[in-house]
Amino acid sequence: MLKMTQYFQLNNLPIRYKLVSLLLLIMILPSLGLGVLTSWAVDRTMDRQINQNTLQVINQVNRTLEFYLSNMQNITYLAAFNPEVKKFLAGNEKMQGIGETSDEYRIRQFLRGITTLYPEVAGILLVNYKGEYISNEMYARSTKSLTDETWYKEAVQNKGIFKIIGHPHQRNVTTHTNYKNSEVVSAVRAILNPETQEVEGVVLVDLKLRVIAEATKNVRLGKWGYLMVIDHRGENIYSPARSLIGQIRTVWFKKDSGTFSHNIHGQYLQFIYQRSPFTNWTTIGVFSNQESALEIKEIRFYVTCFVFFVCFVGLGASYYLARSLSRPIGQLISFMEKAEAGDLTSRYRENRSDEIGMLGKSFNKMLDQIQRFISLVEWKERQRWEAELRSLQEHIKPHFLYNTLDTIHWMARKRGADDVAQVVESLSKLFRIGLSKGKDMIPFSEEMEHIQSYLSIQKVRYQEKLNYTFAISKSVHDLYIVKLVLQPIVENAIYHGIKQRRGPGHIFIRAEEKDGKLIIKVQDDGIGMSQEALSSLRESLAADFTAGGKKIKGYGMMNVHARIRLTFGDVYGLEVESKEGEGTTVTIVHPIISC
């Protein structure tokens, strides 16, 4: 009991008598901890940033290489579809004409046009199954048949699939500009007869290595680091003149991308690599670990100096700071910062009778008042939101719309405009079900009739570009649902998904009972959303929809989400999944409501 009394007496002493012995520890220990933590964080952060930045550069280089090699692939397709080339490769008929009117001259002009359009191409060679060839820049070194060449046989074995050979090696082909084998990269594709699937010939395309050098030569990793490219056999496609390593072993690569370190000739090197699935080439970033180690040591030196400086200042200023600062005040400030950041549940818990205790009690009372005020404002905003939602549904007078649309419908029928009549009839159903005599809940069958009318109207507009399918369980037809939940979602699928993609698109609507809930999925195969756009939409759906003035993404979907949550609670609403280039799926979670 005596100890308790002494404790409370000490606790009620003025602040300036309490801090002299504590202030040194409070300043020195955090400084030491900050130094150790900063040193550890710098090591991890620099390694992570170096790896991420290098992978981004490598990915960009891979895209550039894939672009050029994709052009080479397209050239083989262009050559295969040329009528004169087809005739030459078939080999059954003699080339007709002489001079500038001959088939051979037109083929050469066609190949020159391609190399003019694609200046990165060093040459194109067409060889038929008889060993005859035509080229704009390339020719055989000897009379030996080109069908015996290794590259020709590899193209035949690939059965019409584009294949990248790499640097040519001991082939019986050269060019007028006499490119060295190390200055070009070759690719081949066999051209098959579409009926017999027999090889009619092979297209050989040489790519100038300078385009690969231009894509990588300006990339610098640190002071001495660089990029190099190897093929699937580990042979160099490109490496700079002054490289830290000559040959790289393929056994070092465990995955398609990653990082590893290796000791090369007594020098510790860092390797970051990524393989391109299209070219089957691996782009590798090579740099010395000593460069990053020197930067880390420099940062550690500055952190250490800072820690010693703080400790030195703390020793000299402890007495003076003890008069104006205190640990309880620091605690109270931290509580205020949490409240400022939005955490209104924090409370000052100390039971003291000094000045800090009085401030803490006043702080707690202030937070209680703020919470009560915020609750009142949220309730009023919720009421206002519900009133606005209801007012949106009262703007259109139904009888006038019904009568006008019926008049247009019969006038179109009378004049034989059946397509117009069908659209007007669908629009009439759309309004009739959408208004539903002011009802908020309608049978699910009416909601499906509403969305079928809407899709029927859109089908007239988009024709074959828009297709849709329904998979509705029989058990959900008689259930009740909040009206007008499907139309905004389907509209988004059409305008932001199907409309933007190339070719026809498809919308799939499925509804079923699952785990005691009505689950409705609207899935499209449109262009989808990027991860940034998807995250922004999810943030809008997860946000407090009563927050006035906040800019909301996807107002139509937000309206549906808000109406369901306002009616049934936060466990229901919308869920969105999307992947760029593959489509979007919106899931509506609705309670089971029987007749």
Automatic annotation (TrEMBL):
GO terms for molecular function: phosphorelay sensor kinase activity. SMART domains: HAMP (SM00304), HATPase_c (SM00387). Residues 323-375 form the HAMP domain. Keywords: Cell membrane, Kinase, Membrane, Phosphoprotein, Transferase, Transmembrane, Transmembrane helix. It is a multi-pass membrane protein. The keyword Phosphoprotein applies. Coiled coil: none annotated. It is an enzyme of class 2 (transferase). It holds the Pfam family His_kinase. Gene3D superfamilies: HAMP domain in histidine kinase (1.10.8.500), Histidine kinase-like ATPase, C-terminal domain (3.30.565.10), PAS domain (3.30.450.20). The chain crosses the membrane at residues 301-322. Its EC number is 2.7.13.3. One of its GO terms (cellular component) is plasma membrane. Signal peptide: none annotated. It is found in: Cell membrane. InterPro entries: Bact_2-comp_sensor_kinase (IPR050640), dCache_1 (IPR033479), HAMP_dom (IPR003660), HATPase_C_sf (IPR036890), HATPase_dom (IPR003594), Sig_transdc_His_kin_internal (IPR010559). This is Two-component system sensor histidine kinase YesM. It comes from Anoxybacteroides voinovskiense.
